[in-house]
Amino acid sequence: MSAGTQAMAIAHGEHVVHSYEHEAELVASVCPYVEARAGVSAAFPADADSPRHARRMAAATLRRWGHDEAFIADVSLVVSELASNAVRHAGSSFAVVLEVQSPLLRVTVEDRAPLPNAASGADMLPRPPHGLCVVDSLATSWGIEPTRTGKIVWAQLTYAASLEP
To answer: Are 77 and 138 in contact (CB under 8 A)?
Structure first.
């Protein structure tokens, strides 16, 4: 079905069903993202399913870039934890950015909720068994930055191969 035919069918209240051969196609259709040579970004709603979609987007991207499954698993867990925090604690839509800064991959999750204590972020210290403790154990470094509209939580992970997207 062409895009024009599909748009007309939707406008007339008809349901349009898509089938996807690969999971990455499904993820891209649910949440379109922008991919550049050195990174990828995607926006997600404040929905309980969004962390799963963010995790799958990250895994599909890293596979496309040729990273090994162990690294993909680590990054997927970091993305899942940070995205879950945005939905669960911030109650906010969020954006995920994966950016290659060879030999590091920088993962950022930006949400719309300000830091609890904007001066220090002390309420966001990693405490077992909380998600930030998992992030702390997998990342080379991580941190929190206030923004005008909320905050960015970032983590950097080192990858073994000298791969570029």
So the answer is: yes
